[in-house]
Design goal:
The complex is a heterodimer of chains A (about 150) and B (about 140). Chain A is an alpha+beta fold and about 150 residues long. Helix content of chain A is about 20%, strand content about 35%. Chain B is built from three helices and five strands; from the N terminus they run E-H-H-H-E-E-E-E. Classes of the chains: A alpha+beta (about 150), B alpha+beta (about 140).
Chain lengths: ~150, ~140
């Protein structure tokens, strides 16, 4: 089954809120081998002008993928997860994510197209804080490999 | 205001990954796709063996940029990549990924720099058009 092109342009209701904790940030930093004390030590983060420990630049993927699941798990979208590979990913930080943040994410399906027998699905998740201010924009393109 | 520094020497690093690290990444990121934890499953969907999460590789590579801007993740304003190759992680092995960065552009007016990264594993480029914009 091919990806359903009717999903292009769709916007989902806000997902979350996701509570960002020091423990989550440290575990993510450890898993990618990050070296900065600002991910782990509140005093080190405060010395750099942050209110609490700061997430690594790609940490937001742990939140955006929960938002993207609304699309990927929808059988009508026609996305066979066992055939999905990651094509592209991007993060624009309007401000850093720190421990204590409560973030919600709105998933947008920006583009669906076919290329070389594969389905390409481009999504965007807009993460906002509890005051509704923009925090991070996460863009992602997944490739659904065609049956060959 | 503290003086901002950059360390060009920080832009090259060999990072390593093994299967235990991928379990840690799966748990920390919530990405439990079995192609990153179950070699048999990975082969059943046509992959050569268990592979690292693309986002593990991107995250590990981007830490080089955080180190470049004095360890302040808040100075990494944006970053993006394409995934151009796989990091295959065989049982019992520790796999090396070479990350190399160069400053491609300096925008004095905006106070930013654009760093371009390459990540190579077993001679293959695994990240393409990988770049980050940092507050210089």
């Amino acid at each position: 089954m091919a990806v359903n092109p009717d999903y292009a342009g769709r916007e989902y209701p806000p997902a979350g809120p996701f509570q960002v904790t020091r423990e989550q940030i440290e575990a993510f930093a450890d898993a990618i081998g990050s070296t900065s004390p600002a991910h782990r030590d509140p005093a080190a983060a405060q010395a750099l002008g942050h209110g609490d420990v700061v997430a690594p630049p790609t940490f937001a993927v742990s939140l955006s993928q929960q938002c993207e699941a609304q699309l990927i798990r929808d059988p009508e979208a026609g996305i066979d997860f066992s055939r999905v590979v990651h094509g592209e990913e991007g993060f624009t930080h309007h401000r850093p994510i720190t421990a204590g943040d409560s973030l919600t994410g709105v998933l947008h399906v920006d583009r669906i197209r076919e290329a070389g027998g594969h389905g390409m699905v481009s999504t965007r998740v807009e993460l906002r804080d509890a005051d509704g201010q923009p925090v991070t924009t996460v863009t992602s393109t997944i490739v659904v490999r065609g049956e060959s | 205001m503290a003086e901002l520094t950059t360390d060009p020497g920080a832009l090259t690093r060999t990072v390593t990954v093994d299967r235990a690290q991928l379990v840690d990444y799966a748990n920390a990121s919530g990405d439990q796709n079995p192609i990153h934890q179950d070699a048999e499953f990975a082969r059943s969907v046509g992959l050569p063996d268990l592979i690292a999460h693309g986002m593990w590789t991107m995250g590990a590579a981007l830490d080089v940029v955080t180190a470049y801007v004095g360890g302040d993740p808040g100075r990494v304003l944006s970053c993006s990549t394409r995934f151009t190759g796989m990091v295959v992680v065989p049982e019992g092995e520790t796999v090396e990924v070479l990350v190399e960065g160069v400053v491609r552009k300096t925008d004095e007016e905006a106070g930013t720099q654009t760093v371009e990264l390459t990540a190579t594993c077993a001679g293959e480029k695994v990240l393409g058009r990988c770049q980050a914009v940092v507050r210089a």
